[in-house]
Write a structure and sequence with these properties.
- It is flat and about 40 Å long.
- The longest helix is centred in the C-terminal third of the chain and has 10 residues.
- Strands 1-2-3 form a three-stranded parallel β-sheet, sandwiched between helices.
- It contains three helices and three strands, in the order E-E-H-H-E-H.
- The two termini are about 25 Å apart.
- With about 90 residues, the protein is α/β, with parallel strands linked by helices.
- It is about 25% helix and about 15% strand.
């Protein structure tokens, strides 16, 4: 049987060293902060690989927020990720 393609994928502060292979890829929403140790390990590697398989990607790289910024206000631009995510979801 043929595997069905996900409608969309949402990754919030993922390990940026993951390898992306195969394709095509569904639309992606990704959010991570520059000061997250997971971003520092892999930089833009994961999003670069995703874009080779799909042109539908919403990528938010926040200047601060650390790892696990979640829903708690910290005064960083990452405080608004949920609004951006919900807006993106509404367009899918």
């Amino acid at each position: 049987p043929e595997a069905s393609l996900a409608r969309h994928v949402s990754l919030i502060y993922p390990p940026m060293t993951q390898t992306i292979t195969g394709g095509p890829r569904p639309p992606l929403f990704m959010a991570i902060a520059v000061d997250d140790p997971l971003f520092k390990q892999g930089g833009l590697h994961m999003i670069d690989q995703w874009l080779k398989e799909s042109k539908k990607a919403e990528f938010h790289l926040y200047s601060g927020g650390g790892h696990g910024f979640g829903m708690r206000p910290s005064g960083a631009t990452s405080d608004h990720w949920i609004d951006q995510y919900l807006n993106w979801l509404a367009k899918q």
